[in-house]
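Notebook p. 47: complex prediction with thymidine-5'-phosphate.
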Amino acid sequence: MKLIGKGKSKDIYRADNGDIVFEFTDRVTAFDGVKKAEYAHKGEVCCELATYWFKILEKESIHTHFKKKISTNRIRVANLNILPVEVIWRNYVAGSLWRRFERGEIKLPEGTDAREGAPIPNGMLEFTTKFETVDRPVNTEEIINSKWMTEDELINIGEMTRKINDIMFKRLLRKDIILADFKVEFGKTPKGKILLADEVGTPDGCRFWDKQAYVRGEFLSLDKDVFRKNKGDLSAAYLEIFDRITKD
Ligand code: TMP
Ligand code: ASP
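Predicted complex, structure tokens below:
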């Protein structure tokens, strides 16, 4: 195995057969790498949760690059051509959506209350750049004009993301967890088939809120917002979300 890259939280290797191996480390970064730390168990929790969701999504006919979990913090995946956009699905107003609204840069989708934490009635799809130093929101016109994706690929990815949301949202709600939003990435096989790539359903790439706290009017984050907003011990939050998601 040869180390071929280091992401913000994962180390990436190429296996002898051409597959890719992700090693989930304990590193955590936020604000485009400005804030950094390490937390025990983080890598294992994200590795196990990504595996958990990849398996569920595959059963529900979402095709992914996942092949096998090969150790406590490593998975083997197919080598894809990663598309240069990150795809964000939002069920609730949070994070950068709220910040852009407060700055007066955007309107919220129709029927959405102008407050942090408000539900977005039909959900909302957004795209950001992936390979620029700072992730930047992009619209579908720029994606097509830049030839990052075709119109058909965009429609396909939008439908897959909506379906991924439906599957995760329903399962999490049964565990009293609100899936406020999440980010996914996609890649293409040499034959042009689009597969879900990177990781999915981890507290690094999703906002998970405790539902009972939300009903009381509080935000109890069980995800990377604990680190972004200095809301306590990240290891404890990650272990809690891990237990709640994986224990039936
Ligand atoms: P945002 O509110 O900061 O735009 O993030 C929306 C969701 O996407 C949130 O669950 C965090 C996730 N996300 C990532 O996983 N990686 C990223 O680089 C960004 C910008 C967001
Ligand atoms: N800015 C994003 C975040 O806060 C991505 C990152 O830098 O990790 O999650």
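Notes: Residues 81-232 form a domain with the D-amino Acid Aminotransferase; Chain A, domain 1 fold (CATH 3.30.470.20). Residues 151-173 form the longest helix (23 residues).
Next step: compare against the earlier run before touching the bench.
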